# Entry
Amino acid sequence: GIYAVLLSMVGFNARHPGPSSGWLKTYVLITFINGSMSSIDCIQHMLLGDYPMLLASLPLKVNMAHAIQVATPLVNFLGAYAGWESLQVQRRMQIQAYQQQMMAMMAEASQPFQQRASLLQMMSGRIAPGATGIPQPPPGLPPLIPPHLYV
# Structure
């Protein structure tokens, strides 16, 4: 009982983003192993002839024990599947956030190159000073290109 409570606490805490989300991989692995072991246990009982049956003639406690015995592997596999899907969603979100950061960095990095290209064009006389696309210094500062280089 304590093991199941600890496992459910790990799963509950791991589903939230943050530092505890790293435990989600552990939860998925452990629940999958538990589901496999519970399935083997259920198959072993069937091979021994101790079938988990739900009958009205059996006491309620026995019916509940049999229901839990059959439901345990299903619940474990369902929890492992839900955790796995959550991991996949988190991974897709991380990749998307990384790609957005990279695109923003690339957009910022291309601006200085565009500014340098327009400055070089202006210096070579292809663009007149003050034309659009040429960065102008803030008011009170000297121009970016010395006046003797103006066309």
In short: The radius of gyration is 33 Å. The CA atoms of residues 125 and 151 lie 6 Å apart. The chain has a mean pLDDT of 78. The longest helix spans residues 60-123.
